[in-house]
Amino acid sequence: MAHFLPETLSEARVIAAYVTFVGSYLVFALGKFPGLKIDRPGAAIIGAVGMVAFRIVQPADTLRFIDFPTIVLLFAMMLIVGTLHLVGFFDWNAGMVLRRLNPSHLLPAVVFTSGVVSAFFVNDIMCLVMVPIVLSITRKLRLKPMPYLLAVATGSNIGSVASITGNPQNMLIGSFSGIGYRDFLLHLGPVALVGLFLDWMVLYWFYLRKERHEPKLQDGIPVPLIELSRLTKPAVVVTGVVIAFFAGVPPAMAAALGAAALLITRTLEPRKLYDEVDWGLLVFFVGLFLIVGGAENAGIVRGFLHVAEYWNLHQMGVFTVAVALLSNIVSNVPAVMLLKSMAPTFSNPHTAWLVLAMASTLAGNLTITGSVANIIVVESAKPDTKISFWDYFRVGLPITIMTLAVGWVWLAWFP
């Protein structure tokens, strides 16, 4: 990859790089540009164009800055998860777990269903599916939906930390770090498992410890009716993809082959599947690669690394806190993009990459805006239930602190 030293850029171009970089990350932090309707993907496009237009990134070098395995993996997983969504796999999965449950067992069932499925598939779709099911169940059982909706959001965030395919930032880290799927799962799977138990404990303490539940309903909890024949081919393909992950096949290649196989169909309308793809997120990633590439060329990232040394961020505990804070300020994917140059400078880069994945993901439970999954749950629950900032934060804060502590201790003991 070609990098241009800051000495080769004129002072005007360096200034333009700083303005573009700071402006882009300001939008990433605020969610939109003040007074304008520029969202995060829009800011990524504008920032990327600015870096190329001012020749901070040379047009001939743009493709070299884009990490295509990350883009391919993200796109392929969107197609796979979208197919599973359309054929009703997630509804069937939730139904199998929640069928004929005692109300007192509903909270852990929601936490672990959201978490375990999100460990292997991008967690956003799980939230879209689980919210209406949870609302339907709590309505019939006359339960307050708040703790169960919070369980969907926090559980999906925690579960997604376990694997490379759990969320977009893990895919990015998996590609840059070269850490294998099994290695990643072996190190962060236990963090996710313990985190789900802590999530259950906190939600139970805040909402259910003083409540008494009625006996189990005779006709069971309502679950969606699914045509199981539609699940056969997707189930076979997805099983093959997961086996390929564990067998050591590059995740991007395994996911791409699985997505291609699922596109060969006589029953599923391709346009519906394409609608399941988050095109804005893909554009966001491409733009970020070019923005951060320009920041590297202009010496901005190098200056950031000097600041990191001054603040002693190479201590794992300090690094964990810094990643968590930055992820809540600018969102987790931009934070990872900015810190990806720092991880290789640690004495143990392997552990640094894992800490970056762990902290950037678990930090998403701090506030409603900490992750896309949280926003999906809050918006999908309207108008049945309104989840305020305080409703989320009062459980998100202890969950975030405890899970980050568990992750830091585990990775310090098992680097």
Name the structural class. Answer: mainly alpha
C-alpha geometry: globular
Mean pLDDT: 88
- The number of helical segments is 20
Report how far the terminal alpha carbons are from each other: 29 Å
What would you report as the Rg, rounded to the nearest angstrom?
Answer: 22 Å
Percent helix range: over 70%
Total separate domains: 3
List how many beta strands DSSP finds: 0
User: Could you give a short account of the major beta sheet?
Assistant: none
Q: What letter string, H or E per element, gives the SSE order?
A: HHHHHHHHHHHHHHHHHHHH
Query: How much of the sequence is in beta strands?
Result: under 5%
Contiguous low-pLDDT stretches (5 residues minimum) are: 1-7
Describe what this molecule looks like in 3D:
With 415 residues, this protein is mostly helical. It folds into 3 domains: 1-65 and 278-297, no CATH class; 68-88 and 226-277, no CATH class; 106-216 and 311-415, no CATH class. Helices cover 70% and strands 0% of the residues. Residues 1-7 have low confidence and may be disordered.
Entry summary:
By secondary structure, the chain is mostly helical. It contains 20 helices and no strands.
How is the topology of this model organized?
Blueprint lengths: L10 H20 L9 H14 L8 H4 L2 H19 L2 H10 L7 H15 L2 H19 L4 H15 L7 H10 L3 H28 L23 H16 L3 H13 L6 H6 L3 H19 L2 H11 L5 H15 L1 H8 L9 H14 L9 H10 L7 H25 L2
